[in-house]
Amino acid sequence: MFLFVYGTLRRGFNNKNSEKLNFLSKWMGKAIVPNAKLYYIKGDEFDYPAMVLNYNDGRDNDGDEIKQTCSNTSVIGDVFQLLDPESTFVWLDEYEECGPESPKPTEYLRKQIKVKLIEDGNGMEINENCWISVNTYIWNWPVENENGDLIAPVVECIESGDWLLHTNNKNK
């Protein structure tokens, strides 16, 4: 079973949870989720990203243009093959605060989606259409109000769609 991560669990982040995921899995490569947006969430203890799927094309149901918080419509992350999916998902659901004991509605939901691998585990670029079915955690709360303004704790849309790049650029 495969997992797509786009935040602090990605390779390149050095924290106890990313190290734990690396121990419990095998890195398969870098991937992209088209038709999705990545948002910056201001947390109480630390900041983190949130992915929203199936983002509209900037038009409402009547075809009228609506305000867009950012133009990028893809999210970049990493794919891992889980060595023991059942126990790893128990830990991940708790980490993402969407397990059975978590208060509802949860910030995240675990969902199965398809991602396109763009780089393999050896760092080689993949040029063909290599789609893989993965589990991932998507944002379950609203990001914008009816006027298109962001709703707290959402701070901004991450134009690059890449949390690792965003945080590295922010720390320079």
Automatic annotation (TrEMBL):
InterPro entries: AIG2-like_dom, GGCT-like, GGCT-like_sf. Residues 3-164 form the Gamma-glutamylcyclotransferase AIG2-like domain. This is Gamma-glutamylcyclotransferase AIG2-like domain-containing protein. It comes from Meloidogyne enterolobii (Root-knot nematode worm). The lineage of its organism: Eukaryota, Metazoa, Ecdysozoa, Nematoda, Chromadorea. Pfam families: GGACT. It comes from the Eukaryota.
